[in-house]
Amino acid sequence: MSEDMTPLGYPKRLLAPGQTYAGVTDKIASIPLARHPPRAWYFGFAAGFLLLMMLFVAITWLLVRGVGIWGINIPVAWGFAIVNFVWWIGIGHAGTFISAILLLLFQKWRTAINRFTEAMTLFAVACAGLFPLLHLGRPWVFWWILPYPDTMGVWPQFRSPLVWDVFAVSTYFTVSLLFWYLGLLPDLAAVRDTATKPLQRKLYGVLALGWRNSAAHWQRHQSAYLLLAGLATPLVLSVHSVVSFDFSVAIVPGWHSTIFPPYFVAGAIYSGFAMVLNIVIPIRKIYHMEDLITPRYLNNMANVMLVTGEIVAYGYLIEAFMAWFSGDKFDEYMMRNRAFGPYGWVFWGLMLVNVVIPQLLWLKRVRLNPVSLFLVAFSINVGMWVERFVIVITSLHRDFTPSAWGMFYPTVWDWATLFGSVGLFLTLLFIFIRLMPMISISETRELVCEEKEQA
Amino acid sequence: MPNQSHKMDEIRARLAATPMQWRGLEEAAGTAEYAERLHREFFPGSSEWADDVSRRHFVKIMGASFALAGLGACTKQPVEKIVPYVKQPPELTPGKPLYYATAMPMDGYGMGVIATSNEGRPTKIEGNPDHPASLGATNVFMQAGILDLYDPDRAQAILYGGEPSDWASFLSALNAAMAAQKSSQGAHLRILTGAVTSPTLFSQIQALLAICPAAKWAQWQPVTRDNIREGAKMAFGQVVEPQYHFDKADIIVALDSDFLFANPGSIRWAREFADRRRIHARGPATMNRLYVAEPSPTMTGAMADHRLPISAGEIAGLAQALAGGNTQDGSAWLRAAAAELKQHAGKSLVIAGESQPAAVHALAHQINAALGNIGTTVTFTASPEPWPLDQLASLRDLVAEMNSGAVEVLVIMGGNPVYDAPADLDFSEAMEKVPLRIHLALAENETSRQCHWLIPAAHYLESWGDVRAFDGTVSLIQPLIEPLYGGHTDLELIEAMVHQPSRLPYDIVRWYWGAQNLYPDFEKSWRKALSDGVLPGTALPAVQPKLVSAPIQTPSAAAGPELILRADPSVWDGSYNNNAWLQELARPFNKLTWDNAALISPRLAEREKLNNGDMVELKLHGKTLRAAVWILPGQAENSVTLHLGYGRGTTGRVGIGTGFNAYALRTSGALWFASGLELTKTGESYSFSATQTHHNIEGRDIVRDGTLAQYNANPQFIDAQAEPRPPRDETLYHPNEFKYTGYKWAMSVDLNTCIGCNACTIACQAENNIPVVGKYQVAHGRDMQWIRVDSYYAGDLDAPQMNHQPVPCMHCENAPCELVCPVGATVTDDEGLNLQIYNRCIGTRYCSNNCPYKVRRFNFLEFNAGMTPVQKMVKNPSVTVRSRGVMEKCTYCTQRINAARIPAEEEDRRIRDGEIVTACQAACPTGAIVFGDLNTTGSHVSKLKSLPLDYWMLGELNTRPRTSYLAKLRNPNPEMGT
Fold first, then answer.
1. A72 shares contact with chain B (CB less than 8 Å)
2. Residue B82 scores a pLDDT above 50
3. Interface membership of A157 toward B (CB under 8 Å)
4. B788 to chain A: which residues are within 8 Å by CB?
5. Distance between CA atoms of A305 and A299, rounded to whole angstroms?
6. Predicted-complex ipTM score
């Protein structure tokens, strides 16, 4: 047993041996300052950009024709747009969870990934925010949902969870943005100081807001950072709870359930970590970051996925149990239909990718092998999307009145919008990687310092 | 000069002899014609005065014409035009509709209607309460007929050989033809019409036949009443019309008769039938009992207390057994029906459908006579058709004459025989041999394509005329609008053939009735008849025909698969093929739209391994047709039903490419059904659009039903079927937030009397400007109708019970839709109306998700786009036309509520009970829908809601709906079990 391992045989190191302050700064700051990004970056950006263009086409056609270009109908009046919204919001959970909650819990293994996941959160929430607007029948009057002083005294209808959504998501986005930017400040200054070209120096200089690395700066920065972390922590729990109210407040069998808030939050963190892994693993490889993003990170993230995954599986179980236990004939039918109805194959697919495959994470080999971990995380990402599909579509397509039952078949525009939003996410992400220090320099240097002190 | 032959050797010789420049073979040939042409300015024939009238003579004629034209200008033309007014007519207040009584002819028989006119454009049809065939109600065809008026695919100009022409040219062509015909007594003139009940038209045709005694008048309509007529002739030796009185019948046995829907008297009969089933008071109740034997489920079959699915060919045997009394070895159905008919002699009724052969009708008459029903439940009158013909025979004769070349002029008034005549007659080919073919048609169709002249027909809302109802009552047809496309009526066409100069249609009708000397003060009676819509005292008197004692031979039934042909419940015989409202109207039971299907029984499907949408090849008597199948529970095992009216070759934009042409299999020997059908699966498939795909109620408390015996034993038994209504305060919100102290609008729907005829759906569509979305959108669940008629099956797959349930918005007091709307676009008002505010709606569709009844409809696309200005004329000005992206739903006809509110407030009184009639309620033939105020003591709706049969659909959700249902009761024969 080497000194890199804990007594139980798990990776212990947060940094590979031999890291220095200057080495860390150079390594991270050189990425945005480099004249050419690595070849893989071009491929990734091009793929994302092409998908983004597809999104623009899909949105244009949507605005020209109306939401009828999608597969939604009566009874399934919500389709991919809402599925995508909930999926993206869920993905957006990992960032703040890692930054805020782990910060407050003094978990040092957030250091190398927090910047990155915060950016991911912002982009995921941006993608998510697109869908509630696009899914409106008349998106050009979306602002009627906001409480503004209307001359006719008309307010939003505050009993509707959709109004709560607006507040929850916009608050979450704002706090996440501030938190991310606040964390970036010292690093932007570091990049500014490393930069040699005048334009770069100017750009990062403006963004660094005059950071001079003084002790007073650090003192204020740290308290503000902690305060924001405190603010963001309840938001992590509240946002997806509120999103789950969209469903649980309604009377639709399969939606109307009290387990939804915790179950949605767990699912959100589950999918958030899966997305982090899906991005971190390739990036770590491309930018040779194995020294900074050590196996311990991967192992810990896999552990979080394992825990939240079990909570989600428990949620599935309880849903089925309550459908039977409640004795409610509509709930009972909903559960039976979910598993054995026309969309039964989707449900069993969900069980496979979201419950069965993630059990592989019990194996150390799977957790520590980046390739297998990537594949399991991918399966979870797909699984969490499918979960929302099951919740939204299979509940709606057969509810109370059998004569009105119907089916939902996605159209090419549904898929274009889904993959297009992935394109938007990737494009933003690759631009971020290109322009910003993707790992917190200052916090990594703290780690170096700690290592030195220990040594 | 294409036909000029040149002698090439001569040209060669000439060219060799004289060296010359030549421009063409003509010049090289040096012909005389060429030489002349060189010296003329114009081409030969273009500048000569060919006529032998000299120039002087021409000027003389011109002078005379000018003088005569001047004289003509002095004649005052009778004013009967309806024109857009420059000055406001005194009877009109802008914004207030006017109502006119008129009548819609359908297959020759009149249905009295009240047409609503908004600023000169008819927008809505209601039934005429004074008319015997309507009693104020309508069927789907009357409701949707108005859309045909504004159909942009209507014939818009007189066409001669496909080229636009005009009435004057037509008249001169007609005059020339008629002059020739008159000289030969009309021996080569033939007229083809549908059934004619119009006394005026009949007198016109008589006048024509008086001038041309050798001319012949043939009649054909695909839904022919030949069997009814011939059956009466067989039984009584004379043509009489049976008049049924369902109000007097305790036991009704229907032999393949859809008497609740498919007959000229059906609306009235449905009312009479429903009145005997309605339970609108407390205390012990009685109901009539209906036995139906039929091959394919009909609305009548769905109302049956005992329904026997049986092939059409076996019905005759059933009738024979009932007539002969040898029912001992028959089915339980037969034994029970026979026994009950006997027990209720004089109060029972046997009725045969028009698709059953004449012998079955004759047997039915014999049974009714033997039971003493004649004179009570069935009486007889002369036929409302003044000249009842065996239509099939007359058509067959016409085809034979056309083939022999005996016909020189064929005038077809309406109809579409090229499409709908029996396939074996090959009408199309025979017609090609007629030198002059004239067709009066509402829209260009297969027949007019093959005619020399197409004369656009006036829609009935543009016409003067008259028509008899099933009982003979005459209605006047009066126009509400000047013909949009200069259409002409059949009266004008015959007039033009008889009289020159012609009278105007108004004069023709008026002069005819003036000459009848029916009324002492004609002017007053005429005005009253126009205002009431009926001519009083014109119902035909009852006659007492004597039974002929000859034994009746029925054709024996053949085993094996049979083909059943029936008029489509929506597009009928094809005449409504281009009507989008009817195309998108879900057919009863299978809820198919935009297509017909080969309806097959579940057993046949099992045997032939067929699924919904599988294409099959149907082969009958050498004719074949490819069609897609649909499995219909309740279909007789070996019967395959195909509805007529689809697969049109020439139709408008709406109807083109829909369905399968059943006429391809319809031969004169088998107009309605035939055995010997071969059915082969082709392996291809076809996609249908149905509005409802799930017909199993899954044990839910949606339709409550029971039997009369259960009800009489315990009137509350229906409540025991489901959870009790939750208490009012079982809600998170303030339960008494609204008190509803003013009006409290509510609706009651009686499932017991609903026959599932769909009239409410179309009436709502017409009243509320509901767009049509097309087959593709229906398949994707975007149909827009605000009130739908759901159908559910219960029991045996092969002989299920069928229940209809009209579902409008429930107007819940605790409306789930309202809580979830983020912008408050749907709210309950202080009278309990669940309002949808289109202006405020941003289209989240959350309300629809949360509506347990799924009655909300969403404009997924701009469904009102691309309407022509004429199409827009049908829109109701009192109802907003919704744009893309907003939710909509039933409003309880809020515009009608407000129309009643204004005069009530002016007079400072409450709105009276019955003053507001919603569109669905007005259309309902059986009065199953009642709307009103719950706070008005003694209002009809509050009485109905206090009945023990009243229940809330999904009431356990505590939605507290204002629309409630009266449970359905059946009255099965206790001796038959269920």
1. yes
2. no
3. yes
4. 403
5. 10
6. 0.92
